[in-house]
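re: the backbone from monday

yeah here it is again, tokenized this time
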């Protein structure tokens, strides 16, 4: 069976964020979801009124709403969300908020670290603990068992699992507790 990445025309056309990009992506997402769910998908939007080209005006209106949301998404995230829909929405076709939740769930968050050599104004104890953790670069199975390194490691892990930016959160914590 082919994956979403190889189905249909290429997803790599107009620039992300543009109206044209969103519209093309919405049409492709609608086609894939129609393939997954058949008429259950299209019936969610059908109005029974057709335009001069013979397209259902309800479906066209829904595609415009989806296009506005999808225009802000990364194509790879949308592809991964389409794969996730197969398991998360097996019984019913997803609504736009449900689909966008799938997109957010599969987004790849990149932690932005300060440039090398740039030290932030953080308490010496926090900086020492972070430096110690960076020097150790211990595998996940070898974590410190006590003290501030454990707290920082757990906070960073929790923020990362929740889809946040670990380094920004740690910097915020050190600013808040100076």
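seq for it, each position gets an aa:
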């Amino acid at each position: 069976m082919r994956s979403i990445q190889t189905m249909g025309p290429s997803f790599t056309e107009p620039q992300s964020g543009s109206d044209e990009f969103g519209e093309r992506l919405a049409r492709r997402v609608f086609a894939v979801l129609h393939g997954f769910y058949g008429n259950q998908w299209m019936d969610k939007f059908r109005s029974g009124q057709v335009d001069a080209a013979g397209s259902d005006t309800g479906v066209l209106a829904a595609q415009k709403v989806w296009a506005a949301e999808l225009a802000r998404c990364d194509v790879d995230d949308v592809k991964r969300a389409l794969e996730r829909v197969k398991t998360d929405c097996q019984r019913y076709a997803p609504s736009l908020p449900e689909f966008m939740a799938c997109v957010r769930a599969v987004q790849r968050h990149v932690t932005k670290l300060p440039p090398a050599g740039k030290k932030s104004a953080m308490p010496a104890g926090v900086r020492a603990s972070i430096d110690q953790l960076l020097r150790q670069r211990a595998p996940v199975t070898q974590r410190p068992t006590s003290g501030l390194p454990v707290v920082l490691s757990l906070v960073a892990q929790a923020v990362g699992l929740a889809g946040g930016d670990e380094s920004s959160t740690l910097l915020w914590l050190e600013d808040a507790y100076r």
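Confidence is low (pLDDT under 50) at residues 1-14. The CA atoms of residues 99 and 149 lie 38 Å apart.
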